[in-house]
Structures are given as C-alpha cells and as structure tokens.
From TrEMBL:
This is Nickel-dependent lactate racemase. It comes from the Bacteria. It comes from Petralouisia muris.
Amino acid sequence: MDIKLPFSREGMMLHLDDNLDYEILESSIESMPKTGKTEDEMVLEAMEHPIGSPRLSELSRGKQKVVIICSDHTRPVPSKHIIPFMLKEIREGNPQADITLLIATGFHRATTREELVGKFGEEIVDQEKIVIHDSQNMDDMVNLGVLPSGAPLLINKIAVQADLLVSEGFIETHFFAGFSGGRKSVLPGVSSAVTVLGNHCSAFIDSPYSRTGILENNPIHRDMVAASKMANQKYIVNVIIDADKNIVHAVAGDALEAHAAGCRFLQQYCQVIPKKSADIAISTNGGYPLDQNMYQSVKGMTAAEAVSKENGVIIMVSNCGDGHGGEGFYQALKNCESPTSLMEEILKVPQDETKPDQWEYQIQSRILIHHKVIYVMCEQYRAMAEEMGFETASDVNEALARALKEKGKDAHIAVIPDGVSVMVKGI
C-alpha cells in the first residue's frame, strides 16, 4: 500500500508492504455526508443562523470601533471565505464602523505582508486597517484583571478599546488546550507574553486533562474561557476544514456557545480508536503551513505518543524548513543532560517564572523520555535536530526500515496521516 503523507506543500510517499502489521488512523471528516454547499455557502449559512447570539449585523449597530481578531500565518484558516462576509455584515449594521483586523500572533513571529495577502487577498490587505499583535510590546497592553490561575490578563489595547470584539478562526484538536478556535483568539492570540507564559505554566501542561480533545477540567482551557469573557469577545465565525484545507463545516455566534458546538461536531469525526498500541507510530503535522518548524511539529507528535507503547519508535514526518521555530525550545533540548533531567527542572519552575517555549519543550521532553523519535525533515536542519536529541532521516521509508530493524518485522505500525487532526482514544 502506498500512502501520500502531508509534507510541506508537496507530500511524501510511504510504502507499506503487505506482510507488515499496520493500521491507518485518520479522521472521518473526508467521509462526512456531502451537503452540496460551497465553502462560502457554509459560512454564510452559519452566519445567518448564529448560535446563542444575534446576527453580526445586529451586534454592530451603533458600534463605532469594531475589531476582528484574525488568525496568523501558522494557521491554515481559509480567511478569504470568512473575512469578506464578516466585513459585509458589520457594515450592514453600521456603514461607518471603524474596523480593525487584529492579527493574533500569540507568541509567534510577526506575519509578513506576503502571508497576509495569501490569507486575505490583495484587496483586503490594501483597503482594510490591519494591525499585527506583538506580545512583547507591553506598551500595547491593558490589564483586565486576574485569571482563575492567578496569572494577570494583559491583552492588546486595540481589543480592549473595541466597542465590539469578534473573531474568525478554525477548530481542530489541540494537544494541550483540547481544541483550537473560539476563546484562543484572545488567549494566547492577542495576549501579552506575561499572560501566555502564566497560562502555559509547567503545572498546567503537566495536568492529565491538558490533552488533545479534553475541555472539561482542563486548566488551560479554563483560563482561556475566562479571558474571552473578560475581554468581552462577543461573536465568532469558526470553521472546520478537511485535509485539503477546505471548509466542511462552519459555526457562528456567541464566542463560547458556538465554539462548544463546533467542538462537539468535530469530535464525531476526529476521534480514532486504535486496534492496539503501536511499536512504531508514523505521524505528520498536516503539511504546510503547520509543518514549517519543529516547535509546531510537537503537536502532530503527540498523536503518535498517544498510540505508542513504552519505548516505541515515533517517526515524525515534518519538513521544518524554518528550523526549530523557537530559540528557547532549541536551547533547552540541545543543552540538557537528558529529557528526564530537563523535565525535572521544568516541573520546579513557578508559574510566574515560566520561560518562553517552556511548554513546548516540556511536552517534547515527555515524549522523548518514553520514545525514540526519528525526524523525517529537510536536509538543511537535520544536524540541528540531532543536536536536540532526535535521530533524522531523509525519507519516511528509510526511517521505517530503521525502526523495523529495531522493533522486528512483526512490529505493529500505526500510521497517522495527519497528526493534528485526530484524537486518539482507547489506549
């Protein structure tokens, strides 16, 4: 059997001999009943029937400063099918509205003009007011109080000064927030570095509830919900996309109610139950844009972690053409004595002393403590990855041959074509 795995923009072929013991774990989004509606029609239908909220045109009446929080370059949100309709509805409610598109970079680098054009198109980039959030610029922040965790909520003043705060986004499984979308537009999207660090503290990341697909009792989600309420995030348009990044479902309405409905819908299709634990697990980060760096690729790796036996081999197929993706992430893994010693250090760090990238190398350490990881990535950064404690390979078939040599030809193999789109249960 040959499977084309997502890898950068091109993909990579995996060959599985018939005599191997393998199973394919993927979401059933592709098998959803077809509605016959276009992507635009799905978004418009959701906006015409908002969940727990008036229509956006009604919300915008009398509102002068309107802010739409938009996803950044690391998220494959099909904004061209969302933002034009949100702008249109806002202006139907108030033709004179002063609208700002606030790019939710969270803790990421600034989005480039080229990336903005790719998201929105030339017309919106040229004609609309766009501001890129900078979590490090404390002059841009306003303190809205204290979150349930005890961390302060400081968010971008443009969001605070809005008469109406709304957002776009997409819902997918998330490896420690449960699901993306909705409230994440505020925290971490337009929050200060101080707030993001407090929310992503070691104790919260260590919680057994801070896992893919879990919202109940998840301390990270709890803070995010509080941030959404404190910021008065009134309305969202969130979509669910397939492997080709096309919209298959949309929700609109109240920031919390619509998001919860979208999560419930997605869970029907993203949950997978393996036949058994895997000796070898192959995962990806869904290809471009999510597989641009190693930092982001920890997400897809957690799906492999969830299905793997103790001391299993994880093969991570992710291009990582931008390198490590986080200096703190890189340095921590490169300079530690071992993943175990690094984890011991991390768990001692108080919430208000959380370091940049700490949550990512905490989860990466957790994986490396229990599993060998072979990275299939671009040639340029393989030496760097090896410095960080990974093995590397140029091709997934080479990596699989190496893993089979270690685990034996009877090893059970789990192939996860898109590690960021599934929720592994039942192991």
